[in-house]
Design a protein that fits this description.
Shape: elongated
Helix content: 55-70%
Number of strands: 3
CATH topology of one domain: Rhomboid-like fold
Largest sheet: 3 strands, antiparallel
Oligomer: single chain
Distance between the termini: 14 Å
Radius of gyration: 27 Å
Order of helices and strands: EHEEHHHHHHHHHHHHHH
Strand content: under 5%
Strand order of the largest sheet: 1-3-2
CATH class of one domain: Mainly Alpha
């Protein structure tokens, strides 16, 4: 990709781009604060394109340069303007399919939640999981299994009912709660002891994944905990994901999403244990990816306003601050009740930035 020249008017750069296309020279342009820059895609075309540009500069309004202009997709400067995606003559979008899957899983999970509450009560929902969550969470350790067995055996509908159980029932509940399980580095730091880690049975870490359920490395991102959670994530995915898919294609977009999802999930699991969900780690990874591509290759035309990047950064910082306050209060045995997968946010963002630097994820030239 080589810079040919700068234009003050978009109509001029668009016209000259159409002229170059007639000469079988591929080019893209992007906007700056002072005008527009035109880039030649193929290195072998640079000398010819430069010579044509120099001739054009002498008389840009010459009839020679007036060609029937087909609509050419410009690589604009970051603006909050996104076009509907059409690739290779097809309107199929893996991004839209992911949004659909997340939505369907959310509805199904809500139905299963309500069924548990109706049949077993609020306490069972607080301490156990739906069939869908048991299948898609990062892990489903013996700790969760034993709690599920307790609520299947004892008719407890509220947390208060547990205190009313006979001694045998209360002991069974405590035994289930005390099942050795990986609850994350955060839990160990809060307890200021590695005893729980040392007591873990062999093979506890990544238990279900070790058994071959490798989809769990990614699947937690498809689940969401509430209407606000899924609406927020899917809105950002719709805005950001289709920008990326439009430029790098379905296959590489899928690879990008999988890599950000798996890496951010692994780090979140190591930090907090398996009870996390949501697409926000990948969403913030996409913000990092687009931000870096704008820095490295502005001609690719990702229309993401820098203000949006700043908003996301501030959002993550605020969540991190809340998490730090919660952890700090935890040392004094004060529970703030903040449950945020901020490790996935931070690691996802950094992963997106790093992947954006790989040539594999450059914009496709059509």
């Amino acid at each position: 990709m080589r810079l040919i020249g700068e234009f003050k008017d978009e109509k001029l750069v668009f016209g000259f781009q159409a002229f170059l296309k007639k000469e079988n020279i591929q080019s893209v342009y992007d906007g700056t604060k002072t005008g527009f820059r035109l880039w030649v895609v193929e290195e072998d075309d640079f000398d010819k394109a430069l010579a044509l540009y120099q001739e054009w500069e002498k008389n840009p309004h010459d009839d020679l340069y007036k060609v029937k202009q087909e609509k050419v997709e410009p690589a604009r400067s970051p603006r909050w303007k996104i076009r509907m995606m059409r690739q290779h003559g097809s309107s199929f979008s893996i991004n839209n399919l992911i949004i659909l899957i997340c939505g369907l899983l959310f509805v199904l999970n809500n139905i299963q939640e309500n069924r548990i509450i109706t049949q077993k009560g609020e306490a069972a929902r607080d301490f156990s999981f739906t069939p869908l969550e048991k299948t898609l969470l990062f892990d489903y350790p013996l700790y969760f299994v034993n709690l599920e067995k307790f609520f299947a055996e004892y008719p407890v509908r509220t947390v208060g009912d547990i205190k009313e159980l006979p001694a045998e029932g209360r002991a069974a509940f405590q035994k289930a709660k005390n099942t050795p399980a990986w609850k994350g580095l955060t839990d160990l730091l809060m307890k200021r002891s590695w005893k729980d880690y040392e007591e873990l049975p062999a093979g506890t870490l990544f238990g279900k994944i070790r058994e071959g359920e490798i989809w769990r490395l990614y699947s937690p991102v498809l689940l969401h905990g509430g209407w606000l959670h899924i609406i927020f994530n899917m809105a950002w995915l719709w805005l950001l994901g289709r920008q990326i898919e439009q430029r790098i294609g379905i296959f590489r977009y899928l690879v990008l999403s999988l890599m950000i999802g798996v890496i951010s999930n692994v780090f979140q699991y190591l930090m907090s244990g398996p009870a996390f969900l949501g697409y926000s780690g990948i969403v913030i990874g996409m913000v990092g990816f687009i931000w870096m591509r704008q820095k490295m290759a502005p001609w690719e035309g990702y229309p993401l306003d820098p203000k949006i990047v700043r908003f996301i950064v501030i959002y993550v910082v605020i969540l991190l601050a809340l998490e730090m306050v919660s952890l700090g209060l935890g040392f004094f045995h004060i529970e703030l009740g903040v449950n945020i997968a901020n490790t996935a946010h931070i690691v996802g963002g950094l992963t997106g930035v790093l992947l954006a630097r790989l040539p594999f994820f450059r914009r496709s030239v059509k």
